[in-house]
From TrEMBL, chain A:
This is Stage 0 sporulation protein A homolog. Keywords: DNA-binding, Phosphoprotein, Transcription, Transcription regulation. One of its GO terms (molecular function) is phosphorelay response regulator activity. Residues 8-122 form the Response regulatory domain.
From TrEMBL, chain B:
SUPFAM superfamilies: ATPase domain of HSP90 chaperone/DNA topoisomerase II/histidine kinase, Homodimeric domain of signal transducing histidine kinase. This is histidine kinase. It comes from Ruminiclostridium papyrosolvens DSM 2782. GO terms for cellular component: plasma membrane. Its EC number is 2.7.13.3.
Length: 236, 463
């Protein structure tokens, strides 16, 4: 994990105070090699000489805009780029992400969010690829293994069907939060999900039979009347 | 196209009616005129009949004519005679000298049909012979009309076919003239229709309607110019607001960054951290005000591009309610959902519609700090093909005369009262989002009766 903190960062923004602030937060967070540039020309120079591992890029720069800088950059480098811009319109965000930016943050922003997103990108790009695991979680004595698609209760095993698996996965992703029936149907049946509400109820009933002690008065998979369902999971 | 056809139809029927009227009028006039001409004073036939009737034979074998009849003859400068069975003149009145002779059967047959020595004469039978009345030479024209019976009996048919022929001719002529007229009018009507639809038009100024064509052209140019200047003004305003809200973001980032950093740092006293937290909260408020202001101005000047797709209102409403509940809605508030039509669908921008529901719910929350019951409903109206979502609270409400104010922008001149709390952009934004979707926002409320906000949108329900 610590090798992420040794990565070379480049902040490109024409506002000295803002660069300074981000610089301060990043250093506090443990990053050590941070470079700054106030315009496109300077940025290209730093990129060529230092070869930073990631750039935080403003869109409006005195000698050009971040979008064209990114296009120019993409000619010779694949380094991840995070846009940090005052331009928050949908088109701008789509343009930036379409050009191959890894993320787009609109000002004003919270420093914590910037650092979380930055480290997320670094981890994704530079950490040794880890097999993505489907979650395995516990409801009292039952173990719900979404990787294996099985619910274990002691020595008995209940296999989950594909739809049950998709529904349970969606519920787990949003655990302890209401998931609307529309979102659940969409997760299981895709975009043209309309009309599956009754089928959804049947599947929920079957899931309850596998994960609840008493499916008729559920303890974990709750119905939120008029809205949807909620999976209650105590974090260990 | 349809309108030119309608004009042509009207034109033809008017022409036909006018033609028929003219025809009938002329026939009547002709009839009256001829009849009057024939009967100027007394007709020769009347005169001769009168003479034959009033010519009496007295016991002493002399003839006498009463005064009125002889006066009648005198008025017409006519003469009269009675030719007896042998061809001799038994009686006469003012008979010209050259006529004092006997008449043979052939003479009688001749003058009965034509003239007697160029005198137009008329005959009538009398007990003693034939009464002949003669008019001055050249005063009357005598014509014989001899018609075949078949011709007379078929005359109604002939008159009818004459009428029909006339109508057909009138239709054809008016069609010809009308279509010529229409052809010259059509570019103009198209031009005017184009103006109504706000399309740039140019009509070739030629023919009798050249002046009109020029007027249409200049009206179009004027409209275009007005639109362009309006648009550039709107654009300037919108860009100005966008520019300001852009420029505010960077300094706001710095305020937000440092204040939240201070709020989180453990090496300063709690009280200072709380103050930093207040600065952070206010900066966040400023941030949302700035982006709201930008969105409202874009909507106001219709410069917000809509990312439209089919959206089921029920799904949207459930999502909005779930988001509020998931994000820890204060327990003073109860949020309920009532879906009246599950498949009511609109074509809309999901983010903006979600924004409007959120704004309405936040409005109910912000104006009722002591808590209230908030009900979200969706409806489909079969009659008007619209659907709507409704946010109702049972909070303190607003007085009825304040309702229109709520939809005006906070510092608009149309607003009668100053705003109470909040930045005042929430409801105007909802109204403008509804308008951008070709719908509208309806508010109803009264003091103590809560607020009901309904967004009505055109439906695209297909099933």
């Amino acid at each position: 994990m610590d090798d992420i903190k040794n990565k070379k960062l480049l902040i490109i923004d024409d506002e000295f105070e803002l660069r300074n602030m981000i610089n301060g937060f990043l250093r506090k967070e443990g990053f050590t090699s941070i470079f700054q540039a106030s315009n496109c020309a300077e940025a290209l120079e730093v990129i060529k000489s230092v070869k930073p591992d990631i750039a935080i890029l403003d869109v409006m720069l005195p000698d050009g805009d971040g979008f064209s800088l990114l296009s120019a950059l993409r000619q010779f480098s694949n380094m991840p780029v995070l846009f940090l811009s005052a331009r928050g319109e949908d088109e701008d965000r789509l343009l930036g992400l379409g050009l191959g930016a890894d993320d787009y943050i609109v000002k004003p922003f919270l420093p914590r969010e910037l650092i979380l997103r930055l480290t997320a990108i670094l981890r994704r790009v530079y950490s040794t690829p880890k097999q993505e695991q489907r979650p395995v979680f516990q409801l009292k004595e039952r173990i719900i293994d979404l990787e294996g698609g099985i619910v274990r209760n002691g020595s008995t095993e209940y296999p989950l069907t594909a739809k049950e698996h998709a529904l349970l996965f969606k519920l787990y992703e949003n655990r302890n939060r209401i998931v609307t029936s529309d979102a659940l149907c969409q997760a299981a049946w895709g975009d043209d999900y309309y009309g599956y509400e009754n089928t959804l109820m049947v599947h929920i009933r079957r899931i309850r039979e596998k994960i609840e002690d008493n499916p008729s008065s559920p303890e974990y998979l709750l119905t939120i009347r008029g809205l949807g369902y909620k999976l209650m999971v105590k974090e260990v | 196209m349809e309108s030119t056809f309608r004009i042509l139809k009207r034109f033809i029927s008017a022409t036909v009616i006018i033609s028929i009227f003219l025809l009938i009028f002329n026939f009547i006039l002709l009839g009256v005129w001829v009849f009057k001409g024939m009967n100027a004073g007394h007709s020769p036939n009347d005169v001769v009949q009168n003479v034959a009737k009033s010519l009496r034979i007295s016991p002493n074998a002399s003839y006498s004519l009463d005064f009125s009849t002889s006066e009648l003859l005198r008025q017409h400068h006519a003469w009269a005679m009675l030719v007896d069975g042998t061809g001799h003149i038994a009686w006469n009145y003012m008979l010209p000298h050259e006529l004092t002779k006997t008449y043979s059967l052939a003479d009688v047959a001749k003058f009965t049909r034509n003239y007697l020595m160029d005198y137009p004469v008329f005959v009538w039978e009398h007990a003693e012979g034939l009464v002949v009345v003669g008019y001055p030479k050249g005063s009357l024209a005598k014509y014989q009309h001899i018609l075949p019976t078949s011709w007379v009996s078929s005359s109604p048919l002939r008159i009818a076919s004459l009428l029909i022929g006339n109508i057909a001719l009138a239709v054809l002529l008016s069609l010809f003239i009308g279509s010529k007229l229409i052809r010259s009018i059509r570019p103009l009507t198209q031009g005017i229709q184009g103006l109504a639809e706000d399309i740039e038009v140019y009509v070739e100024p030629k023919g009798v309607l050249a002046n009109l064509a020029q007027s249409v052209n200049s009206a179009s140019a004027l409209l275009r110019q007005r639109n362009a200047s309006l648009k550039s003004r709107d654009e300037a305003r919108s860009n100005w607001i966008a520019g300001i809200s852009h420029d505010i973001r960077t300094p706001l980032s710095i305020v937000l960054g440092y204040s939240s950093n201070l709020e989180e740092s453990s090496d300063i006293p709690v009280q200072k951290r709380q103050q930093a937290g207040i600065i952070r909260q206010q900066a966040e408020k400023l941030g949302s005000l700035v982006s709201d202001l930008n969105l409202v101005s874009m909507l106001e000047y219709e410069m917000q591009p809509l990312d439209k797709k089919p959206i089921r209102l029920s799904a949207l409403v459930r999502q909005a309610a779930s988001d509020f509940l998931n994000n820890g809605l204060d327990e003073h508030f109860i949020l309920d959902v009532e879906i009246n039509d599950e498949n009511a669908q609109v074509s809309g921008d999901e983010r903006l519609l979600m924004r409007s529901i959120t704004n309405l719910i936040l409005n109910s929350i912000n104006h009722n700090p002591d808590g209230c019951h908030i009900l979200l409903q969706t409806f489909y109206n079969e009659g008007s093909k619209t659907c709507s979502f409704v946010v109702i609270d049972d909070g303190k409400g607003v007085s009825q005369n304040e309702l229109p104010d709520l939809l005006e922008l906070p510092f608009s001149s149309k607003r009668k009262r100053p705003r109470h709390n909040g930045h005042g952009l929430g409801l105007p934004m909802v109204a403008r989002i509804a308008k951008a979707h070709k719908g509208h926002l309806l508010l109803s409320s009264d003091i103590g009766k809560g607020l009901r906000a309904e967004i009505v949108l055109p439906s695209i329900k297909v099933e």
